[in-house]
Design a protein that fits this description.
By secondary structure, the protein is mainly alpha-helical. The protein has a domain of 261 residues: ABC transporter involved in vitamin B12 uptake, BtuC (Orthogonal Bundle). Helices cover 72% and strands 2% of the residues. The chain has a two-stranded antiparallel sheet.
């Protein structure tokens, strides 16, 4: 029988040995990756400790304060969840554009524009029950999608790099919000309801606010359910659908995708619209959740959430389920910094720690990529 099958067919013991060897190689590669991440994180934390000591503080007190401020103290993990929700939504949109090979870095402006239209709709349609909240959130999605769509149109019809247009549109969005907060017919609240005539919008009515849950003394809005549902749905779409496959094909090799019949304009522009829609929804959730301005629009409303979501998506390496954890960590760094004043250290130290952690998490993929490329070149030279 073996003569009929030929010499290239493996016997059953040989096949089992090959499978066992492959498993050993996979385990070794996994252990190597874990060790590389552990080393990078340890170095980052050590550098942060040195910087804290250089400013005259105690690194143990700083790390303890950040841990207490993010999850340890009563009610703090609820606050961290409230900050993590928009970071997660923005990160999901960033993953969509990244899968299509697009570099959208204007999430901050898309968040602002989503909150802008959400505030306008919420103040004009108050008193209609749950319909007001639904219209508010839909308006935020549409506004963010349109703002990112401008960059998409310029990218595919005028060949203007989206990395420039999305960033420049962020500055435009900030100025538009400032203009809206100076005009009574847009966002500015009546003078009678403003303390010291501050430029703020009118607070959202009760029916335009997202309901809240309280668990073990921790309060957070129900939008956490929406964010997690969207995350799991996006994971399924990207990895278990034809649309997700075409997006990934477009992102990895646009020429091959075009030859396979994938419309670069259709899927690329769709990815930009979806990316902006998620960021805009993040802005609407921030406004209707009440944790970023007490249900009001104020100057600098974005609070850096757009950039935080962008960094979270980069650290997660465009993995949706990993992004859920990374968004919570980033939110914990923001909320934990509020406890640093008690240690006598500036709250900016939290930004330093976050930057070092981002670098530590981005370094291993770069190292692995360079190593794989070096091995591939060595194999190519050996064959030739």
């Amino acid at each position: 029988m073996s003569d009929l099958l030929g010499p290239s067919v493996l016997t059953e013991p040989e096949a089992e040995e090959d499978v066992a060897a492959a498993r050993v190689r996979r385990r070794g590669a996994l252990a190597e990756v874990v060790a590389l991440y552990a080393i990078c994180l340890s170095v980052a934390l050590a550098l942060a400790a040195v910087l804290v000591a250089a400013t005259g503080g105690s690194w143990t007190d700083v790390y303890r304060a950040m841990l207490e401020g993010s999850v340890g103290a009563p009610g703090r993990w609820g606050l961290t969840l409230r900050v993590a929700i928009p970071i997660l939504l923005v990160g999901l949109g960033t993953i969509i554009s990244g899968q299509a090979g697009l570099v959208n870095i204007g999430q901050e402006g898309q968040v602002v524009m989503g909150a802008f239209l959400a505030g306008y709709v919420g103040s004009r349609f108050a008193g209609r029950g749950p319909l007001t909240l639904t219209m508010l959130l839909l308006a935020s999605i549409v506004s963010g999608a349109i703002w990112a769509g401008v960059a998409g149109v310029l990218r595919y019809w005028r060949n203007v790099p989206e990395v420039l247009t999305t960033l420049l549109l962020t500055a435009v969005a900030a100025n538009l919000l400032g203009f809206g907060l100076r005009q009574r017919y847009l966002l500015l609240a009546p003078a009678a309801g403003r303390a010291n005539r501050n430029q703020v919008s009118e607070p959202l009515a009760a029916d335009a606010r997202i309901p809240r849950l309280t668990i073990f003394g921790n309060t957070f809005p129900l939008s956490i359910v929406l964010a997690l549902a969207l995350a799991f749905a996006l994971a399924v779409v990207l990895h278990r659908s034809v649309t997700g496959f075409r997006l990934r094909m477009l992102g990895r090799n646009s020429r091959t995708a075009r030859r396979a019949g994938v419309s670069e304009r259709k899927y690329g522009l769709g990815a930009m619209l979806a990316s902006g829609g998620f960021a805009g929804l993040g802005g609407g959730v921030m406004l209707a959740g009440g944790d970023f301005g007490n249900y009001q629009l104020v100057a600098n409303f974005g609070a850096g959430i757009g950039f935080a979501g962008l960094l979270a998506a980069l650290v997660a390496q465009q993995r949706v389920l990993v992004l859920i954890f990374v968004a919570f960590v980033f939110a914990g760094l923001r909320t934990g910094s509020g406890f640093l004043r008690a240690t006598g250290v500036s709250g900016r130290i939290a930004d330093v720690v976050q930057g070092l952690l981002v670098l530590a998490l981005l370094l291993p993929p770069a190292v692995l990529f360079l190593r794989h490329r070096r091995r591939a070149r060595a194999l190519t030279r050996a064959r030739t």
